Amino acid sequence: MCGIIGAVANRNIVPILVDGLKRLEYRGYDSAGLVVIDQHDQLQRLRRMGKVQELADGLVATPLNGHTGIAHTRWATHGAPSERNAHPHISGDLAIVHNGIIENYVALRSQLQTKGYEFTSDTDTEVIVHLIHSYWKNNDLLAAVQGAIKELQGAFALAIIVKHYPQRIIGVRQGSPLIIGIGKNEHFLTSDHLALLSVTQQFIFLEEGDLVDLTPEKLMIYDCDGKKIMRPIKTSDLAQEQATKGDYQHFMLKEIFEQAVASAQTLEGRLAGNHVLISAFGTKAEVLFPKIKHVQIVACGTSYHAGLVARYWLEQYAQISCQVEIASEFRYRDNVVQPDTLFLTLSQSGETADTLAALRKAKEQNYLSTLTICNKPESSLIRESELSLLTRAGPEMGVASTKAFTTQLTALLLFTACLAQVHGQDATTLITALRAIPEQIKTVLQLDPDIKKMATHFSRFRDTLFLGRGVEYPIALEAALKLKEISYIHAEAYPAGELKHGPLALVDENMPVIVIVPNDHLVEKLLSNVQEVNARGGRLFLFADQSINVVAEKNIHIIKVPTVNAIIAPIIYNIPLQLFAYHVAVLLGNDVDQPRNLAKSVTVE
Ligand code: G6P
């Protein structure tokens, strides 16, 4: 949540900051701002309510120019979205931007008010800038920042400038990501290195507790004990175009259509003949995997739904028992750890605050090991887990997750096959199914025009129910989440067998029911549920295997899905449902890539 970018260079850095903010906008987009040190060594700030484009338009009317500056795009936590709450915040000659939450801000605020500091915003961030200011003596910026951050409780990444040092930025990483970009005689700071690909491919991913002092020519990193330290420089192989929309109208549609390639990338180099290469999960996997008797999965949002699918797979195909829990619940619950349990986190970003906190809790407990399946190579979850598997979905910019989910599922099926193999079962059918994923995705994407047409019959509704059985139940949950996120239509998902235990009471001509109907061992039972809705005058929207004998009528709309291997059916059925949510949201005129109130990377609780 919230995106930070900073630059210290020997050229005007305002265009770099604005371009970077646009690329960070997925982290929050309710207001944006920047501050630069101008040629007279004065702080010049501009903030705007709304998206980064508002700020860019503001800069046309009020051009700013400077060689050093920091900028921010906000997802509001403390204080409503407004210009006065937008970052950067200023105290005297100091300015900061902040990503995260300061938990003890109320106490600090009243202490600072007693000292005479006046607050002009409702944010927790303003506490930080006044606190640093209160420590600012003898022009020693480093000491002021080091002193102030000792008093802060919570999670934060900060970038700080002061007009006395017109060519200097200080950054702090403590709970929220912060990355240094290295240019030629220029340095940058960012929450996500994607934001800087237009200026550099060289990055340093700061560790927890690091503080960095940047000038155009020099960079100095201090660890959490204040000791000077060097961190490795990594070269990104991501091309700038990977984070652009290309010919697509929205990132979400582009990312849906990238899923065949993305899932192939997830599998690349991880299968050999009819074997999963166990080392793909980390060097210690060979020793640890044979010991696994139980898997505890923890995740949030869409990643949690991927975990729910994995539970069906692990228990059915690898005979490994599995529990799945939402991270924000797991982290605060007294849980019992079964012997030989692998703790598995799932995450696109690798920075979700609750998932990270759950992992840290698990590391204090008696788990066999920790594994993360994650899309971001340098993320906190990857760094803090003993074992890891990258999903390799590439940058996902749409706030509603699509290809990240599909690649998580692909990775989880790979994991299931690996455990089946390690525990002496024949994984050949699983591996055959895995290899079929990319082609099956390509086939199902061809349904797009039919789905677009079906969306026109649906978009007038304000509420809906999704039904699925077995492994399609989590897919129904994910489809309902996707629809509500981007169309703002109220959607709930139920296991179809639960229909008669309550939700059936809601069914009438204004409560359509969307049903996922693969041709599996539960199809007859599911078709009975469909009849229960039909008999009560409900509107049905079916995503059904083409071989099933259901006929479209006035109240029954059907997307006929090509027959698919039952093992990978949840992966394949999810894709037409993504397209459905997308087309409904477009018909309603919504901002598909940046839906209201949401953000992609949730680095606060
Ligand atoms: C946010 C995003 C979701 C995502 C969830 C978990 O809510 O909007 O798309 O599923 O966070 O994020 P993670 O990065 O841990 O998968």
Strands, helices and their partners?
Layout: E1 3-8, H1 14-24, E2 31-37, E3 43-49, H2 52-61, E4 68-74, E5 89-91, E6 94-102, H3 105-114, H4 125-135, H5 141-151, E7 154-162, E8 169-174, E9 179-183, E10 186-190, E11 202-205, E12 211-214, E13 219-222, E14 228-229, E15 234-235, H6 251-257, H7 259-267, E16 271-272, E17 275-276, H8 285-288, E18 294-299, H9 301-317, E19 321-326, H10 327-330, E20 341-347, H11 353-364, E21 369-374, H12 380-384, E22 387-390, H13 403-422, H14 428-445, H15 448-458, E23 463-468, H16 472-487, E24 490-495, E25 513-517, H17 523-535, E26 540-545, E27 556-561, H18 569-587
Parallel strand pairs: 18-19, 18-20, 20-21, 21-22, 23-24, 23-25, 25-26, 26-27
Antiparallel strand pairs: 1-4, 1-10, 2-3, 2-4, 5-6, 6-7, 7-8, 8-12, 9-10, 9-11, 11-15, 12-13, 13-14, 16-17
Helix pairs in contact: 3-4, 4-5, 7-13, 7-14, 9-13, 9-16, 13-14, 14-18, 15-18, 16-18
The structure holds 6-O-phosphono-alpha-D-glucopyranose.
6-O-phosphono-alpha-D-glucopyranose binds next to helix 9.
Task: Describe it.
- This protein is α/β, with parallel strands linked by helices and 605 residues long.
- The chain has 3 domains: 3-242, Glutamine Phosphoribosylpyrophosphate, subunit 1, domain 1 (4-Layer Sandwich); 245-441, Glucose-6-phosphate isomerase like protein, domain 1 (Rossmann fold, 3-Layer(aba) Sandwich), CATH 3.40.50.10490; 446-605, Glucose-6-phosphate isomerase like protein, domain 1 (Rossmann fold, 3-Layer(aba) Sandwich), CATH 3.40.50.10490.
- The chain is 34% helix and 23% strand.
- The strands form 5 sheets. The protein has an 8-stranded antiparallel beta sheet, with helices on one face. A 7-stranded antiparallel beta sheet has the order 5-6-7-8-12-13-14.
- Strand 7 and strand 8 form a beta hairpin.
- It starts with a strand and ends in an 18-residue tail after the last helix.
- The model has no long low-confidence stretch (mean pLDDT 95).
- The structure holds 6-O-phosphono-alpha-D-glucopyranose.
- Residues 300-303, 347-349, 352, 355, 399, 401, 598, 600, 602 line the site of 6-O-phosphono-alpha-D-glucopyranose (G6P).
